[in-house]
Amino acid sequence: MLITGCSTAPIDQASPSDAAAHLRSGPQTATLPDADVVPVTTNPTITLPATVESASGGTVTVTDTSRIIAIDRNGTLSNIVFSLGLGSRVVGRDQSTTFPSAADLPVVTGNGHQLNAEAVLALNPSVVLVDKTTTPPQAVDALRASQIPVVAFTDTRSVSTTPDLIRAVAAALGVTPAGDALVARTQAQIADAQATIPDPSGDPTMAFLYIRGPNLVLLAGPNSGADDLIEALGGKDAGTAAGLSAAFTAITPEALLRANPDVVLVMTQGADSVGGLDGVLALPGVADTDAGRARRVVQMDETEILAFGPDVGRVLGALSHAIYT
Prior knowledge:
With 325 residues, the chain is α/β, with parallel strands linked by helices. The chain folds into two domains: 6-34 and 198-323, Nitrogenase molybdenum iron protein domain (Rossmann fold), CATH 3.40.50.1980; 50-174, Nitrogenase molybdenum iron protein domain (Rossmann fold, 3-Layer(aba) Sandwich), CATH 3.40.50.1980. Helix content is 31%, strand content 16%. The strands form three sheets. Strands 1, 2, 9, 10, 11, 12, 13 and 14 form an eight-stranded mixed sheet that branches. The radius of gyration is 20 Å and the shape is globular. Mean pLDDT is 93; it is low at 12-19.
């Protein structure tokens, strides 16, 4: 995942940790019940041409969806396309699109999720979907210059914005009824997941740590996506409560102790970069938090935990099961 809005300033203030009921102890791994995308339909009705607003400005008309490429940092757009029942029409993928039905497709992004325009053009797509943060912008411009319809979508990812994103992708691909059906299914799954969260939850403080080796540990804060996820899980975001202003901030062990989370959330790949969940618990400052004393660290795959796509309800359900008894 590409980190934006990052600060290296230490946390100046922190929120005291409140003990919360119903929490599991010990390391946990949250996994989805199905590894692959489950399409809402296998034969969506396609109505073209479709003219839609692009988040990059202006309108785009899509006349052909026979060869689709969808690109963003978390694989969210590809997940939506496959969930709409259009997976057989996808001809390329980004690095974050790793679910089984897409795994054999050629990859068109490189280090840092950078778009490779030449790799895209070689696949002769009929339409390309990106988000506003797809880089480099010159590569996106090259695709537009080649007369390929390129539709840009918002880069905002949250539980509440997921339905609008699904509808926008469905409209661009001419499958609005399938989009409505997918939104209904997603909202039902969100409701089912939130029904598993204890009420009251105890308002546990949860810290989302972005880890890439022992020398890069960032605490998520406002507008990171993790804050929205934690709120949906009945918790309080440790970074926001500690007064962070950036989405991700480098922190000291002392600052983490002051934040004192009850639960630590991490990406599985980040945990692997420090030797697994035991390695996370051994990071400076973690062991002395309430979460560390209870060994309460929860990991989930980076392509799932902050994707906020059609699987967001299942993600919430898996995390709820891993966090609460």
